[in-house]
Specification:
The chain is an alpha+beta fold. Helices cover 27% and strands 31% of the residues. Strands 2, 3, 4, 5, 6, 7, 8 and 9 form an eight-stranded mixed beta sheet that branches. A five-stranded mixed beta sheet has the order 12-13-14-15-17, sandwiched between helices. The mean pLDDT is 90.
């Protein structure tokens, strides 16, 4: 019987099942005691290289900057926070061990580490039948710093690392709350479908090609001398542009962009870092395919710091639609 898990080591489904006393199937597998209290929970994801058809599922689980973006259970229709999905939220109040394993193919699963729930939020996705639906997305931080996790001591380990990490990541209510742009009610469904259809394609574009797309969108919106910064020299700035001379009020204003083709939300830390990278005379615009936390929006609009303009995945997708850019050339 396995009594510990090692980061990077591979295990079979049966080894995980019997060692952690969880069910044999499902991506979310809780282990409960006789009183239905949660002992621990197993999350199974799939490494990106093993995703069979990324074009068919642009919303597949991703790991970005050590953050796992995980869509809740339920493949059709609007998702609800109930059943196994609801059990995940218990970690906000109690340091419960969440183990994460990545499907490496051939019925083997690599242990990635312990998970810490950062936030959860509702967004729109288009399913395989081209139906727009509401889903719940969980963002977890993957703790790899504990290379060996004894099952018997997992609760104590989690309590210790969470205490430190929540100070480090500044996880408070405002960083947990994600703000999604909502169109006017009268164009709600159509606008969301069109924008989400475009965003689903954006999530498939190579991050460096995505910067080229941003350059083209910026040029199409009237900016001049638009350039993409070489990856090795960007220093936190991905695109530079200038306001055209015909705009008398802001003629030749330098505008710098940071671009993130992310699924996980942008927090206040990223906004602060971007502000620090800006040229002293430049205005800043942050563009993402995802969303912003409430704390990020507040930081961008800080009353005594240079303001940062924010463009989320919905707004950027609407810009692309209005301009009429063909996304095929960026693949």
């Amino acid at each position: 019987m396995i009594t510990e898990f090692r980061v990077g080591e591979k295990y079979t489904n049966d080894q995980i099942r019997f060692a952690l006393n969880v069910e044999n199937i499902g991506g979310i597998r809780p282990s409960v005691d006789a009183n239905k209290n949660l002992n621990h929970l197993v999350i199974l994801t799939t490494a990106e290289q093993y995703v069979k058809n990324i074009a068919e599922n642009p919303y597949h689980d991703r790991i970005e900057n050590n953050i796992l973006i995980y869509t809740a259970q339920g493949r059709t229709g609007d998702q609800e926070i109930s059943g196994r999905n609801k059990r995940i939220l218990e970690q906000y109040s109690t340091p419960i061990p969440f183990y994460v394993f990545s499907n490496e193919g051939r019925q083997t699963y690599a242990f990635l580490g312990l998970l810490e729930l950062l936030r959860h939020f509702q967004e729109y996705q288009i399913d395989k039948k081209n139906v727009l639906r509401k889903v719940w997305v969980f963002e977890f931080f993957i703790h790899k710093e504990i290379p060996i996790v004894p099952i018997q001591n997992a609760k104590d380990i989690v309590a210790s690392i969470f205490k430190e990490s929540r100070k480090l990541h500044e996880i408070d209510r405002e960083e947990r709350e994600v703000i999604l742009f909502e169109p006017p009610q009268e164009i709600y469904e159509a606008a969301n479908y069109e924008a989400e259809e475009i965003r689903s394609h954006l999530l498939q574009i190579n991050p460096y090609r995505f910067e080229s797309l941003v350059k083209d969108v910026v040029e199409a919106n009237g900016f001049t001398n638009v350039t993409v910064t070489p990856p090795s020299q960007d220093g936190g700035i991905d695109v530079n542009a200038y306001v055209v001379d015909s705009n008398y009020f802001f003629s030749k204003t330098h505008v710098q962009f940071q671009v993130k083709r992310w699924r996980h939300s942008v927090g206040s830390v990223e906004i602060n870092s971007f502000r620090g990278a800006l040229h002293t005379t430049a205005k800043g615009v942050f563009i993402t395919t995802s969303h912003y936390t409430k704390a990020a929006i507040q930081e961008a609009e800080h009353s005594v710091k240079p303001c940062i303009s924010l463009i989320d995945g919905f707004i950027f997708s609407r810009l692309i639609k209005d301009i009429g850019i063909n996304l095929n050339k960026y693949f």
